[in-house]
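Example record

One chain of 224 residues, shown exactly as stored in the release files.
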Amino acid sequence: MSLILHIDTAIDTASICLSDNEQVLFSAQNTQTRESAGWLQPAIQSMLQQGGISLQQLQAVSVSAGPGSYTGLRVGMASAKGLCYALNIPLLTVDTLQSLAGGALRQVGDTVALLCPMIDARRMEVFTAIYDRELQEVLAPTNLIVEPSSLDKWLDQHTVYFFGNGSNKVKDVLQHAHAQFIEVHSSATHLVPLAYQQWMQQQFAPLAYAEPKYVKGFYSPQPR
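Predicted C-alpha cells for this chain:
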C-alpha cells in the first residue's frame, strides 16, 4: 500500500486527491480561480478526515510542478514541500503537461496519434509539448507563439489531439486536417499514474532544491 497525496494548483483551478497505489480513493476540486492558497490546506484536512486517514499515514506527496500559473505553481510547491518536510516523506514532482496528456489517453483511441496539451500563457502564447501514447516526449515542454504552420512538422505525419485551457484560442489558427480538439481539464487525478511510477522507481525530488518548472521567466510590469 502507498498512500500518496496529490496536489494540482498549476493551472486555473485547484484540485487534490488521495490514492492507494494507482487507485483514487478521494478527490476534491475548487472551481474558483485565484483562490488556491486559501482553499488548499482546509481541503486537504477535510479530505483526510473524510477517509479516516491521518497526515502521519501519508507516504509521499506529489505536486503538479509546471508549467502553468506562476502563483499557482508556487502555492502547490510550497504546500507539498512543507508537508513532506514536516512528515519526513518523499516529494514527487510531476510535469503538468505530461499529466494532462495522461488524462487525454482515455479519449483517444487512435494508437498512432500524438497528444499535444496546451496551457494558456497569455496572448497567442501557450506552454505546450507533444507526447506519444506512451507519454514519451516528441516535443519537449516549451512556450510557443502559435502560428498556422507552427506544428506542421508533426501534423503533416500524424493526427494530433490538442487539449487544455490554451487549446481553445488556437482552434482558428491551426486549421490543419490532422488537428483534432478535445476537452481535457486539469485534475490532481491525472497525477496518480505518473506519481506512482516515480514512487515505485524511487525517483524522489530533492526536497531542499525542488522548484516549479516555469519554462519561461516571470515578467511583472513596472508600477506607474
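Notes: The first strand starts at residue 3 and ends at 8.
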